[in-house]
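Exam revision sheet. Question 4 asks you to relate a sequence to its structure. Input first:
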Amino acid sequence: HRGSKMLNCVFWLLAFARLLLPFQIQAPWSLLPVLPSISGSETQLFGKPDVALNGMIPDFIPQATVANNENSVVVDYVAILGVVWIVGVTAMLLYALISYMGLRRKVRKAVQIEKNVYRMEGMQSAFLLGYFAPKIYLPADMEQRSAELVIAHELMHWKRCDNWLKLLSFVCLALHWFNPLVWIAYILLCRDVEDACD
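Answer key, structure tokens:
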């Protein structure tokens, strides 16, 4: 809390980048404990298709199904969870894409007042829109002094590439939509980004 607000954003970036990596980074000075090897158990579990999974199957799975084909039950549940995950990721990305395209359609009515700054009727708050050539959009009824402060705030977002940071973090959120901690992290990231620009 006493450090730089921008430093908070850097820490969030590291956290989200780690969640996007498909592999784990190992180092000799890592603080994470080394888990004991379970060699033998994995050989028994995956090496022999006829091995019983006693004590490893939840009680709500019918015992007849487990007795007939234990490995296929595990594979079926993994496949179902995989389909659910893909549906969730697709829904999140489609929602973001539709929202973005809808917002782009709305801002076509905006009036340019200076380079990369526009005013538009019906807006409740200002925002920065775009990635390669982002533009600042202000409510039409915003006072001049407030507009100057808001433009400075939005320019800071642009300077710090916060639009790309939020895009990266949202992709991470879409991939980890099932994890409530990632939702909390995304909300806190957005808050810290705004605080840093203020």
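Marking note for examiners. The first strand starts at residue 111 and ends at 114.
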